[in-house]
C-alpha cells in the first residue's frame, strides 16, 4: 500500500455514514467507511447481502433517496466534496465523471428504446458532439466491447440481445462519456458463469485502456480475485478488512474475510463439506454490542462484546477491524468455535 | 418489436370474430363522423329545408311513410336519418375529445404521483379517491348545473369524471417502472427528472391506457347522452344522439316511436362496437393473459 507515494487519489472517501431513518429505527447501512482510490485503480467492495455495499455506490452518486441520507463524512472526488454538492453539480458528475453499471442487464436498458437511442442520450447529455460524431462514437464503443455489426445493432431493441450482449451494451453506455470512475454493482451476478469471466475480462481490459478507476461491488470473492488491485471488505456497514487483493484472498487476517475465502469452492481441495460462516447477517437496526461479527466469530472473546474494534494494521499490508486478528496462517474450519 | 407485435396483433385480430365485428362498427361510425353530413339527404339545422307539413312522418316502409324520409321525421319535419348522421358526429367527437383531455390530465397526474411519491402522491390519490366515491353521473350533473350547459361544459364535466382511472393506472405502472434499473441508470447518467419521466417512464406505462381510452370513449358517449337526455348536455342547436332521444321521448308513447328509437339504436351500436374492440385490445395487450 503505497498511497503516500502514489499520485493524489482520484477518490477519497472519509468516514462516510449513510443512514436510513425508517419507522422501525435507524438503519446505519454505511457507518464510517473510508477508502481511497487512485486513478486507474480497481477496487473490490466485498461483503454479504445487506452489508451496505450498494449503498456506498449510490452514495458516491448522490442517489440516496429519503428516508436515506448521508449523515456525515466526505466524498472527495479530486479534492471536491461531492457529498455536499448541489443537485445541479451532481447531475454533471453523474455519467460524465462517475458512471454506474448495474446488476441485471435484463432491466437496466429501457425496453421501448433502441440501443442506439439510449447510447445517444448519454452523449447528447455529456458532450457537444454533432449527430454524425455521436453515431460514430457509439459504433466505435459497441465494437470495442465486442459487438459485431455495430451500426446495425444500434437500431435493435434490448430484447433482441442476449443477457451477456446486453451487459456489454450497458458497459459501452457507461464508458461512453469517458468517466474517470466506474461503479459496477454486481455486474456479472445475473449472467451465466461462462459469460461472467468474459465480461469481467472485457471490463478489466476496457478500463485499463481508458485509465478510469473502478469500484467493483460484489459478494463473490472469486470474481474479485480475478480483476481487482485492492479489496475493501464490508460487514454491517463497516470496513472490517482492507488490503491488496492478493494478500486479502491468500491470507486474510479478519475472521470474517477468512470465512468468506473458505467458502469459495476449490476443486483441488475436496472437502466433504464446503465451509460456511455460521449464522446470518444480524438485523442492522439491532446490532450486537461491540464487534458486529462477534456472534458468528470463532475467535470471539469477552472483549469483543465490550469494545468495537477499530481498523488497524494487522500483518504485512493488511488492515483489519478485529481484536484478535489471524496473525499467523490458521486453517479455520467454519462452524466450530474456539 | 413494432413489426413483430403488429403482425402477431393482426394475426389474432383476423381470428377473432367479435374483434372484426367491433372494428367494422367503429369503421362505419368513423365514416359517418367524417362524411355523414355529405351524404345526409337533408341539413336538419337549415330551417329553410324543413317543412312543417312533413312532421311526424313514419319510416318509409310503414304505411303513410314518405320515401324521402327513410327513418321518418320529427315534429319539425326533420329527417331522422339526417339528424342521426349529424348527431353521431357530435356524440363521437365529444366522446373522443373528452377522452383525450381526461387521458392527458390523468396520465400527467399519475406520472407525477408515482414518480415523486410523498405528499404530492397522497394528495392526488386522495382527490382521486373522493372523486371515485361519487357516481360519475352525479358529478357531471352537479357540474353542469353549476356551470351551465354547452359543449365546452360537457367536455369539462367528462374530463373531471374520467381522469381518475388514468391517474390510478399510470401511478401503479410508474411505481413498477421506477423500480427497474433502467430508470436508475437514467438517473445515474445525469438525466433530469422531466426527461426521465418523458423518455423512459411514459413510453413504458402507455400500453394499458390504450384499452382504457378505447372503452372510455364508449362510456363518455353514454354519459353525454344521459346528460343531454336530462337536458343539461349539449345545446339544442347542436343536437347529439342523446338530445335526439330526448326530443322524441315526449311523443314516444303516442306511438311516434321512430324519433327516439333510431338515435338510441345508433348509440347502442356505436358503444357496442367500441366495447367489442376494447375487449379484444384488453386480451391482446394484457401480458398476463398471454
Structural commentary:
The complex is a heterodimer of chains A (about 350) and B (about 290). Chain A has a domain of about 70 residues. Chain A has eleven helices and twelve strands. In chain B, helix 2 crosses helix 11. The model of chain B has no long low-confidence stretch (mean pLDDT about 85). Chain B is mainly alpha-helical and about 290 residues long. Chain B starts with a helix and ends in a 5-residue tail after the last helix. Chain B is elongated, with a radius of gyration of 23 Å. The chains are: A alpha/beta (about 350), B mainly alpha (about 290). The interface between A and B is medium-sized, with 30 and 18 residues.
List the helices and strands and how they pair.
The complex is a heterodimer of chains A (338) and B (290).
Chain A (H helix, E strand, L loop, with lengths): L10 E12 L2 E13 L4 E5 L6 H8 L7 E10 L2 E2 L5 H7 L4 E4 L13 H12 L4 H14 L5 H4 L9 H14 L4 E5 L7 H18 L2 E6 L2 H7 L2 E6 L2 E7 H6 L4 H8 L39 H5 L5 E4 L2 E3 L18
Parallel strand pairs in A: 3-8, 3-9, 6-7, 7-8
Antiparallel strand pairs in A: 1-2, 1-4, 4-5, 9-10, 10-12, 11-12
Chain B lengths: L1 H13 L2 H23 L40 H37 L1 H15 L3 H12 L3 H28 L2 H8 L4 H13 L1 H23 L11 H9 L8 H28 L5
Keywords for this entry:
heterodimer, A: 338 residues, alpha/beta, eight-stranded mixed sheet, four-stranded antiparallel sheet, 12 strands, 23% strand, B: 290 residues, mainly alpha, MetI-like fold, 11 helices
Topology, number of strands of chain B: 0
pLDDT average of chain B, as an integer?
Answer: 84
Class per helix and strand makeup of chain B: mainly alpha
Order of helices and strands of chain A: EEEHEEHEHHHHEHEHEEHHHEE
CATH architecture of chain B: Orthogonal Bundle
What structural class is derived from the secondary structure elements of chain A? alpha/beta
Named CATH topology of chain B? MetI-like fold
Low-confidence stretches of chain A: 330-338
Overall form of chain B: elongated
Mean of pLDDT of chain A: 82
